[in-house]
Amino acid sequence: MMTERLERCFLPLDRRNPPESYFFRVIGRDRAGKAAALLDRYAALAQERGACFREGIPNPGERETARFFEVTGPQFTITQPLVERHMTIWLGQLRPAQRKTLSGVMLESLDLLRSQGSNESIVRNTYIKFMCWLRAPLGRVLSGLGRPEPPKLLLEGGISRYEALMLRLLHRSGCDVWYVHPSSEEAYQKADPGGRYSQLVQGEVLGPAPEPDRGTKGNSSSAPAPPPAWAGMEGEVVLNGWAGDRPVWEAVLLPAAQRGSQAVPKLRVLLAACFGAEERSDYRNRLFHLERGLEGSGRTWILLDQKLAAPTAAETAPFLQIDRKVSRTILVRALAERLNPACGRVRRLLAQRAFTQVMDQHPVRDLGRTFNHGVRLACWLARYGEKLFASPGGEQPPALIYYGSATEAEISLLWALAQMGADVLYICPVLEARTEFSRHFLAQDWAETVLEGSLPLEPFPQREERVRTGTTAYNASKDLDKLLYSDTGMFRDRQFARSQPVTLRTTYDEVGQLWPEEAQYRPSFQTRDGVVYVPNLFTKISGVDKGDLNLYWDNIRSMITGDTWLITEVPFLKAGGPSMSMAQANAYLHDGRLDPKALKASRFYRYDYLPDDTQDYILEKIQALIDYDLIINGGPDLPAAMLPVLMNLDKELLRLLQRFDFTRSIPKLLIVDVTERLFSLEECILLAFLNLTGFDIAVFTPTGYRNLEKHIRPDSFDALVAGEFRFDLTVPDLRRPGKSGWLDRLFGGA
Fold this sequence. Notes:
Elements: H1 2-7, E1 23-27, H2 34-49, E2 50-53, H3 62-72, H4 80-90, H5 96-115, H6 120-135, H7 139-143, E3 152-156, H8 161-173, E4 176-181, H9 186-191, E5 199-202, E6 237-239, H10 248-251, E7 267-269, E8 271-275, H11 280-295, E9 301-304, H12 313-316, H13 328-338, H14 345-361, H15 367-389, E10 399-403, H16 408-420, E11 423-428, H17 433-437, E12 447-450, H18 472-485, E13 498-503, H19 508-514, E14 526-528, E15 531-536, E16 538-542, H20 549-558, E17 564-567, H21 582-585, E18 589-590, E19 593-594, H22 596-600, H23 612-627, H24 638-646, H25 651-659, E20 668-672, H26 681-693, E21 696-701, E22 718-721, H27 742-746
Parallel strand pairs: 1-4, 1-5, 2-3, 3-4, 6-7, 8-11, 8-12, 9-10, 10-11, 13-15, 16-21, 16-22, 17-20, 20-21
Antiparallel strand pairs: 14-15, 18-19
Helix pairs in contact: 4-5, 5-6, 5-8, 13-14, 13-15, 14-15, 14-16, 15-16, 23-26, 24-26
């Protein structure tokens, strides 16, 4: 039965019933060995026209993610059009049908991740990882999607939550997928609780196939090996429990005599991680005083604030003669036995025990990579173990402070040093580093501190920073701020510096209802991760309601507020042309990316008198307009056409942008067009830019003629017909108060 189900994967789609791809999780094996033969056959197909992973899908490197951002841009919100665009420019080998299928399943997978409780930061990071996986290790799989014989993917051994989701994504896109584990589906159930993504194919026998006897020559004894020397060292080290509620900054300085009862001799140490930062000077002074406290304690301690140097030839020499043609268990034990730091018997046994704990949990099962990982960890443990434990430091345990970003290998070392009996404090002011840290394969024994803010990584402080301190009233106001404006639905003035538009689809009547509403009272308003999602309007209203011109002009008058830029003459960008040519604009654009630093330093930049956050907002939205597909029929050099327009914004517009408080009143652009002219490309660029900044835009066109349609994508705005078309009109003075308009009637005015 086991092999019958697996054999289906070797049939073309037209011979399957139903004609669909399969996702099997194959646990164990059959007694006859047929499943093993099928696995070998499937693996050969996967290597030929798909992908085969014996030790997990390798994480994208920094170079690959940097390249992704270079191609797509760093600022984006995940939507269907954006995913399709990214797949076009990032995964260029896809055919249109493949791209449509894959983008739909990608969005479905990310929604599934959200439903499991992941925040948008995790969803975004997962999307980037998936896109990098699809381009590099999975590129050959993509090329086979949609063919009569589906491409094959094989993953063996351990599996992460994200790998399971990627396998599901590929399966739903048309790829055959096998996940194989010889003895247990425990790892898979952690990644996919309930096994919802795949079908279980259970073997009769659990456990790896018997390995050939590779004992020493002339000795075929099968007697079990004696227990290792470090057996029985459990419980020698006590992590964190003794610290209680003390902040890690205080706990790490606490003498051994104050770390709990001394009746039972134990090594009581701290294993802690701190992510994020407070106000910069306060945070850096905290680090500086931590260093001073350790210096004055008389204990041995180390600060690591650079990437760890790779093991030297002398460090690796003791391990190179180990036989690698053995089982993984024997290999790990042999490496541990060669680990011999010069720090006393107890610490050496603790180091060996910690080493085996790390290696036993490491997801890589390939012997060659296991050996390489093991040698590096063993060399580092010997190097830093000797530095920490070689010289006596009184009763106080030694301490290691690791400052900055850390790789998986470095985090493994820190964890192992704590198991040897050292205080270990990992500090990173970049709050996002916590996401990657939380994915580490080792048990989460860390006492974790998360501070609210985030700072870029700077060198560890060598002196005390200049400090500003708040008065009692100032501190009380800050406390009140937190009480009133943290997850309460109340917002202080200019609380947020970033926004993302959510352009609403509306009816004609809803335009009048929503137009005066503040952002926070509109549907789809939300704040998340420091960003305000501003529900705005972008609508073209054709025709005159009931043909009543007096009512028509009064309706428009009622929509004019103090935050409205009113245009009644077309064309509305004045003659004379921009001060920057397209050729000059290209000097500040590189592969579709704006160079803000160079632009700000140029003679064309006229916004340096504005507050920094307003300048940054304008430049961010210029980049968003370049990235998004809002403008059509713009020619081959569209970004260069955008920049001259957006570097010459009207002063009234700039003031509206500066005053824009994203949670409150929304600035307006109101255009009345009674002409037969089409809006120019430059005018449409301005409209699209203002839409992305959050403006409400209404274009009244009593004639029903085309105007913005030539250059703005039709699905970007609502095209509403209010009544009969009227021609040869003259626009009256709309700033002059008139009779009651639709807003007054809607809200009970006279």
